[in-house]
Amino acid sequence: MEYSGHDAGRLLKRWESLAGSKGWTTHVLGEAGGYPVFALLNERAAAGEAGGLYVSAGVHGDECAPPWALLQWAEAGPAVLDELPVVLIPCFNPVGLSDNTRVNEEGIDLNRNFQNRDLPLIASWQSLLHEKKFTFALNLHEDYDATGIYLYEIADDGSPGDEILSACQDIIPRETAPSVDGSEFENGLLIHDPEAENLHQIVEEDLGGGMPEAIYLYLNHARNSFTFETPSEMDKLRRIAAHERFLEAVSGYLRNG
Ligand SMILES: [Zn+2]
Q1: Which pLDDT tens digit goes with each residue over 124-158?
Q2: Which residues contact 176 (CB under 8 A, 6 or more apart)?
Q3: pLDDT tens-digit map of 56-104
Q4: How far is the CA of 232 from the centre of ligand 1 (A)?
Q5: How many A from CA of 60 to the centre of ligand 1?
Q6: Which of 74, 82, 245, 249 has the most CB atoms less than 10 A away?
Q7: Which domains does the chain have, with CATH numbers?
Q8: How far is C-alpha 89 from the geometric centre of its chain's CA atoms?
Q9: Is 52 left (phi over 0), alpha (psi -120 to 50) or beta?
Q10: Distance from residue 149's CA to the centre of ligand 1 (Å)
Q11: Neighbours of ion ligand 1 (CB under 5 A)
Q12: Is the Cβ–Cβ distance between 214 and 152 less than 8 Å?
């Protein structure tokens, strides 16, 4: 990769060209610093079919591997993009990506604001997702304190998190720390109790009342919600490869029922 991972313009151009060639529907959710923030819906998702996959990347701009991994995965033409409804948010925070900062152009951490309809971008995202139901929602992130991959799982359909981490660990090993950001992990996996009451308690007590995308999606739109993290101090190409593998592993799990 001979260009910067923070070249948001290049990233979005490649997405526009891919979406055009595939005939996906583009929903512009907003505009930030001259960049569009858009959602892409494949034909099945645009037709309102339920199930399938939601994936977002680039919510935190200082985590550059996920948006490129999502792009490369989609460009490679995985079968899931034809077979199941899929909604993709290629880059939620393009100004943050360009500036290499966690927050958006107003200094806001979007991932503590997915309940906040006062933000026009979030309001239009909520409207787009209104009545949509996914089997899996995936949020791709990175962590500069981590030394390995890890996963937050909120799941109704069994507990595939360990299997999915296993599929990725030859690229980057699992995080070995028993605690990440104050939460207890086991072998890189944190399984949240999916009771709504518990999730609201996490938002109130651990996140200062700010709703992350993954919990909002589970409470409103997804049977299973996963947040996958790579260590952002590690080699960029390895991080991108790990996110691509994660997307392949979840897609495989989904397609095999
Ligand atoms: Zn993040």
Answers
A1: 999 999 999 999 999 999 999 999 999 999 999 99
A2: 147, 148, 188
A3: 999 999 999 999 999 999 999 999 999 999 999 999 999 999 999 999 9
A4: 10
A5: 5
A6: 74
A7: 1-141+218-223 (3.40.630.10)
A8: 8
A9: left
A10: 13
A11: 60, 63, 141
A12: yes
